[in-house]
Amino acid sequence: MTASGGVTASAVLAEGGINLFGTTFPTFALFLFALSLFFLTGVYSFFKQGLKGAAIIVLMLAVLSFVAGLGRM
Questions:
Q1: How far apart are CA 31 and CA 71, in angstroms?
Q2: Where are the beta strands (DSSP E) in 16-70?
Q3: Average pLDDT for residues 31-45, to the nearest whole number?
Q4: 60: which strand partners?
Q5: In terms of Cα–Cα distance, which of 20, 34, 45, 40 is closest to 68?
């Protein structure tokens, strides 16, 4: 951390993750959370088009990536 309270890139690498709100999250876990959000936008799009089967499959992928992100923490 710097004197002003900011986080430098070297501090992030030294801690092994990204510090948000006092909690350190591994970079790969944040990537998996972002991937699950991306899948959820696909679910919304498929439901909007009436493709319920595809939406369920993508929803399962979103849940799996979210749970994998929790497992990496």
A1: 13
A2: 18-20, 23-25
A3: 91
A4: none
A5: 34
Contacts of 59 (CB under 8 A, 6+ apart): 39, 40, 43
Alpha-carbon span 59 to 43, nearest angstrom? 6
Residue 61 tokens, joined: 């992928």
Cross-strand bridge partners of residue 25: 18
pLDDT of residue 63: 92
Q: Which amino acid is at 41?
A: T
Residue 18 to residue 63: CA distance in whole angstroms: 22
Main-chain dihedrals φ then ψ at residue 19, nearest 5 degrees: -90, 115
For the ranges 1-5, 34-38, 46-50, 51-55, the lowest mean pLDDT is seen at: 1-5
Cα–Cα distance for residue pair 66/57, rounded to 1 Å: 14
